[in-house]
Write a structure and sequence with these properties.
Length: 187
């Protein structure tokens, strides 16, 4: 059954190809609008699910997947066109790939899926990454704004929260795996 929060998440996923086409075609204003709509659906789907008591297992997996698809595709394309530094693009993509591979490795080792719950630092990192991408898009929309210094600090803040949240997720995964290993060895 498709509920409103999952529908909002699907809108975000469906908007990604349109956003990317607009971005690579140089339609920065339109790309900014589509990205902001995607970010708004991200801000709304969780609270709507909680307020209407419509949390679902599908939504629990679909929402972070939509976030990763939106952020990773945005950062990759902005990196390719030279608007996000290559080192930051590599850092963000590498962290997310490591997390996804980590979940797969945990499943392989434990034969059980670890619950994919975002941490506070992970949520903050997502917010900062979305804010950084929005700032880059605003600067592309109007380069007269003179936001180079702001972008520099946003790039650094994004890098710091990306690294911290990446280590936090790795730590959580190792703790979870260790708890499963000790419970399996007692059997």
């Amino acid at each position: 059954m498709l509920n409103l929060p999952n529908f909002l998440t699907l809108i975000r996923i469906a908007a990604i190809p349109l956003f990317l086409v607009l971005l690579v075609s140089g339609f920065y204003t339109e790309a900014l609008v589509v990205f902001v709509v995607g970010a708004i659906t991200d801000a709304l789907d969780g609270p709507v699910a909680r307020l209407t008591n419509q949390r679902t297992p599908l939504g629990a997996y679909l929402d972070p997947l939509a976030d990763k698809l939106l952020i990773m595709s945005s950062v990759i394309v902005l990196g390719i066109i030279g608007k996000v530094p290559a080192w930051l693009t590599i850092l963000i993509v590498s962290r997310d790939l490591i997390i996804m591979l980590g979940y797969g490795a945990i499943y392989y080792l434990a034969q059980e899926w670890m619950e994919a719950r975002p941490s506070r630092m992970g949520k903050l990192n997502t917010l900062i990454q979305l804010s950084m991408i929005t700032a880059v898009l605003v600067f592309l929309y109007d380069s007269r704004i003179g936001a180079e210094q702001l972008l520099y600090y946003l790039f650094l803040l994004t890098a710091v929260t990306t690294v911290i949240s990446g280590f936090q997720y790795a730590y959580r995964g190792l703790i979870w795996l260790q708890s499963r290993a000790s419970s399996l060895s007692r059997r």
